[in-house]
Write a structure and sequence with these properties.
There is one protein chain. By secondary structure, this protein is of the alpha/beta class. The chain contains 12 helices and 6 strands. The protein has a 6-stranded mixed sheet with strand order 1-3-4-5-2-6. The chain is globular. The N and C termini lie far apart (68 Å). The relative contact order is 0.11.
Length: 293
């Protein structure tokens, strides 16, 4: 079977080359000195297949990925791919994880904008730093993730805000209008109701992230309990009831806590009662954090 062996060797050699190229990506795209403390570069390993999406989200991201991978074909017909997305919804619903998985899917470095380094009290400095970020967007291809985007996109008519923040919003609008690069802009907010109305029109797509449905809960549990022996089915009504109104992040923490306890106690199977106990402990821990605050 020399022909088969030769083909297998070729596949292995190609995989090794691709792995070396991926590992070297970050060394080529580290932020400049001016952007240190503002941009944080990483090469995510989380995959889109590791997350659960609604049918609508799956369709939108599928179209986005196809458009990005075939953007040269679109531009040859004077069409532009979507490259500015806004993700909005409650905390823990997967917005940050989606940014990482999308960067991995598109083989792009992930640049996370750190708001503590971006926003300053000095007049004009925040807008100047924003210009540096948008210059990096044009010169260094990647996925640029603005988390807590409402901090720089807040409604300009809010009387409680001072003039500097209004100038920042104006700068964001102008820079997004003029952006023509090949990088992706992904913004996320938990407070979409305070975004300036003009901000929404600057994005090619706005995607809502809500609490997981019963079907999404089953899908998430299937992922997180992969390889774990259990005494219950994923469509158990008690299980769905237990995780109703819980975010994906909450569910993941509860499952992780229950599985750890099962392993440390030497149990062979995970029981529904283990998840119920873990859920109650999670609730108490969250309550204690609120009381401390």
């Amino acid at each position: 079977h020399t022909k088969l062996a030769s083909e297998l060797k070729q596949f292995i050699d190609q995989a090794k080359i691709q792995k070396r190229q991926t590992s070297n990506v970050l060394s080529l795209v580290q932020p400049t000195r001016e952007l240190e403390g503002i941009l944080e570069a990483s090469q995510p390993k989380l995959r889109m297949a590791d997350l659960t999406f609604s049918e609508q989200q799956r369709l939108i991201f599928g179209r986005l990925i196809r458009e990005y991978k075939q953007q040269d074909k679109l531009r040859s017909h004077n069409l532009e791919p979507r490259r500015k997305l806004l993700l909005y919804g409650p905390p823990g619903t997967g917005k940050t994880a989606t940014a990482s998985a999308l960067a991995h899917e598109l083989k792009l470095p992930l640049f996370t904008i750190r708001l503590d380094g971006l926003i300053t009290k000095f007049m004009g400095e925040t807008a100047s730093k924003l210009r540096l970020i948008f210059e990096s967007l044009r010169t260094t291809k990647g996925l640029y993730f603005f988390d807590e985007f409402d901090a720089i996109g807040k409604e300009r008519d809010d009387r409680g805000e001072h003039g500097e923040l209004r100038r920042v919003v104006n700068a964001v609008l102008q820079m997004m209008d003029s952006y023509q690069g090949k990088s992706l802009i992904l913004a996320a907010t938990n407070h979409e109701h305070i975004l300036d109305s003009a901000i929404w029109r600057r994005f090619d797509e706005s995607i809502e992230f809500s609490m997981p449905s019963a079907l999404q809960i089953q899908g998430l549990l299937k992922l997180k309990l992969r390889g774990v022996r259990r005494h219950f089915e994923l469509d158990d009504k008690e299980l769905v009831k237990l995780f109703a109104a819980r975010s994906g992040a909450d569910i993941e923490r509860i499952v992780r806590r229950a599985v750890k306890r099962m392993l440390l106690r030497g149990q062979e199977f995970l029981a529904l009662q283990d998840l119920q106990r873990a859920s109650e402990r999670e609730r108490k821990d969250m309550l204690n954090k609120v009381l401390l605050i």
